[in-house]
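User: Predict CoA transferase's structure from this.
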Amino acid sequence: MSLRPAPLTDIRVLDLSRVLAGPWCTQNLADLGAEVIKIERPGTGDDTRAWGPPYVKDQQGQDTTEAAYYASANRNKLSVAVDIASQRGADLVRALVRQSDILVENFKVGGLRKYGLDYDSLKELNPALIYCSITGFGQTGPYASRPGYDFLMQGMGGLMSITGERDDLPGGGPQKAGVAVADLMTGMYSTVAILAALHERGRSGLGQHIDMALLDCQVAMLANQNLNFMTSGKAPRRAGNAHQNLVPYQVFAVSDGHLIVAVGNDSQFRAYCKVIERPELAQDERFRTNPGRVVNRDQLIPILVEVMKTRARDHWLAELERAGVPGGPINTIDQVYQDPQVQARGMQMSLPHASAGQAPVGASPIRLSGSPVSYRHAAPLLGEHTAQVLRERLGMSDEEIREFTG
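Assistant:
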């Protein structure tokens, strides 16, 4: 099959965002082929450049100046160091806006207005511009002016009330997720919104302002837990590694560690009962259907706990797979990258890097058969592409570039 260019190859993005939600969004766009110009503060750049250790290592195994956190969300981008607080810097950004399709920013509400880089100002220069603002609480509402951080959103948005061990068990209490899921989900929702606006622009010829809020995205991603509350009137609580709507769907201790059993329907439960040599449980009126198992969880789970302790992890996993019952190990991240399925899917890669030679990256999960994602280079050094962009995009001479960057 003859492959086509990546889907967004003809799209240009100005990235005025930093940390994670905005950069995650623009990295998605870059992977899909867009030219992403990351506008960074001279001298310091994106805050996450300093969020180390660990740092990307060079070919001698020594630390570079590039934090792994920063590298995780900025591949395929061009870095331009510009002081937008100066008149010349703001003018340069406006010149780039005239030839760009998308701008992504995560300044406080109204923070770019004083530089003339807010949506109302820039749409006069480029009516087709799609301008995505990412903030903690959105452009409206009583909290709009507050700064927003992922950790706060996991708490305010309800996630920490349903994450962690049950309150009546040792270790119970509020628990955040192991990665910044509110930031990441906002980046994903922002990507979807931008692609929708691009499609709509194909009809109208006009851009628009996209208002994305971390809190909105955190609340939305509660998914079935939202509807558990809305339909019952009762706020879901922490259930540890169990599931509020499915039983058994949790972690079990086995003779040499732990594993996950994820029974999703009644036929799988019948198969599971055969695996553990307790087929009568599937005929018990209390446990025969999932609603019954949810209501009678406290009677069923102790029986299963005792059975699962009798055999080793690999024995159970092999038997569950043979029976078609979903189950799996609990891998550390190093074990994840040793998994043959993860390796077969190519989820770890290396890309050219200006100071490291080659740098590791986590691959995009997007698989397109005809126009695959584009991997060009790892996260850029601060200002690595300033001269290139000023020359190629704005037609500046070498002397003008030296004057600007000097």
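The first helix runs from residue 21 to 31.
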